[in-house]
Fold Phosphate/phosphite/phosphonate ABC transporter substrate-binding protein.
Amino acid sequence: MSVFSKAVSMAAFIAGLTLAGAAAADCERGTLDDRFCDADGDLVADIPTDASELVDPDTLIFTYTPVEDPAVYVSVWAEFMDHLAAKTGKKVQFFPVQSNAAQIEAMRSGRLHIAGFNTGSNPLAVNCAGFRPFTIMASLDGNFGYEMEILTYPGSGIEKVEDIKGGQLAFTSPTSNSGFKAPSAILKGDYDLIPDRDFEPVYSGKHDNSIMGVANQDYMAASIANSVLHRMISRGELKADDVVSIYKSQTFPTTGFGTAHNLTPELQAQIQDAFFSFEWEGTALQEEFEKSNEGQFLKMNYKEFWDVIRKIDTANGVSYACN
C-alpha cells in the first residue's frame, strides 16, 4: 500500500507545515477567501502561525460527501473513525450531510474538522472554507478516479448525445463535477447543447437519485459519476442493463479528503497518519469501496490533481467567491 514514507518523522512533517507568517490583510492568497493566506503557492490555505487562531477540539467531526444516501455510510466509516480516534486521542463523530453546500458551510463555520469533499466541491471548499485536501482513494496498484457518464434507459429513443436536444437531462447539483460542471462544459463545447435553450435541465440532488431516476424512467437521461453506479450495481440496487451509457468522459479525481486549515499542525499530522496507516483488509470500508476498485488512501496534492477540475470551472465561468 502506498503511504507516507516511514522515514519522514512527525517533527519534520509538522515543521514543513509551519510557514512564515503574514497578516491576513496583506498576504498572498490567489483565489482564496480573504480570511486565508497562501504564502507557499500550493493553492490551499496556510495553517495559521498565530497560536490564537488554531483549534484543538476534544471531539473531531468527520463527514463524507453526500453523493449517495448519508445513512449508507455511517457504518461504512465506523472502523475508520475508531482508528482515527486511536491515532488522535480524540472522540470522533460522523456528521451526515444532505448537500454539498451544507458540507462547505459546516467547515467554513468551524463545525466540521475532517471531510471528504466530492470532486466538484473541492475547489469551493478549498477557497471558501479553508479545506486542506491531502488524499484520495485509489486502487491497490495506485490507479484512481472515475468517469462522468450520461445514462439513459433502454427504449428511451436516445442513442447518442445529440438526441438529448429537445428533451430532458437530469443533473445532480451545481457544485458536482460529474453531476453538472463537466457535462455542462462538454455539452456546450463539443455538442453546442446548452441547458434551457436546447434541453430541459432538472436536478435530482444526488447521483443515486439520478441513476435510479433513469432506471425507473423518471428521467430520460442523466449525467452521473460511474463510481457511484458501480457501487449501486454491486449492492443490487439496480441491474447493469437497466441503464444505457451514451457518453463516457476522461478520468477525473475522486473525492478528496482533508482537514480544516486551522487545526493545530500536530493534530493535522496525526489525522494524516490515521488515513495512511489505516488497514483496509476485512473492514466495511473495504467491502463498500472495492465495488469501485478502491482499496487504499493515496497521497495527493490539490494543485496538481485538481488542475483539470479548475479548468472545467473556468470554462463554465464558475466563481470561487464565497457567498
